[in-house]
Amino acid sequence: MLPSLLSPLGSLWPFSFGTAWRTSNMSVTYIKRHRMEVDLRRRPPLAPRLPKDYRLVPWCPALLEDHAEAKYLSFHCEMDAELFPCLGNPEGCRKLMQDISAGRGFIAEATWLIASYDQRGGWEPCATIQGSRYDATYGAIQNVGVVPQHRHRGLGAALVSAALLGFQQVGLPQVYLEVTSQNVGAARLYQRLGFKRTKTIYKTVEMALS
Ligand SMILES: CC(C)(COP(=O)(O)OP(=O)(O)OC[C@H]1O[C@@H](n2cnc3c(N)ncnc32)[C@H](O)[C@@H]1OP(=O)(O)O)[C@@H](O)C(=O)NCCC(=O)NCCS
């Protein structure tokens, strides 16, 4: 388990980009994010490749809890849990998965879990991705997450590739996602898979001062 990246005071440092305003007990901070897009007609997705002892599991509703667990373990110590507090607790992740999978645009074909073989002979969830239809052209990737002890083995690339193939399968030619600008590892992963930055967005985060 990674140590928490947050200070004991719960400050957004080192992820904040300037305090916009501050009252006696609240502050609002802008967080810089990038929209990144890939055009699957120009850059067809690659077949996902996984190391030994891992497998990609297609979406089915019975896997909701596994996706929620993988999401929580992937995000709760990360900067995105400051931006989206639901990512910082198991119940929030479960509710988010319920909302995403019940949403009108949800795309099962672009939603994948990676399970890792454990030494006791079972499988445990270790990575998750979800896809939704934004409009007739664009698919949206949500919440790519790999549990810390399974990172740097190609699981992130495999998840995104599997999702891109799913978008292609349902006829969506373009795919976008958003990434926090300081999340350079994630941005590099998306770039490697053909995504390009198209827009910068500033998200406001309201924090209670202690
Ligand atoms: C971003 C994230 C999904 C990447 O997952 P990952 O499984 O580590 O991704 P990959 O293994 O495919 O790629 C990561 C790096 O490992 C390297 N790698 C891949 N396979 C490898 C292997 N077998 N041996 C050594 N390195 C390897 C990749 O080249 C890449 O290197 P780079 O960072 O220098 O470009 C993961 O760090 C994560 O879940 N972060 C927290 C949640 C988050 O921020 N999600 C993104 C929200 S937009």
UniProtKB/TrEMBL annotation:
Transferase is among the record's keywords: yes
GO MF annotation terms: acyltransferase activity, transferring groups other than amino-acyl groups
Claim: Transferase is one of the keywords in the record: yes
CDD domains: NAT_SF
Top-level division of the source organism's lineage: Bacteria
Keywords noted in UniProt: Acyltransferase, Transferase
Domain N-acetyltransferase per the UniProt entry, residue ranges: 62-210
Protein name from the UniProt record: Putative acetyltransferase
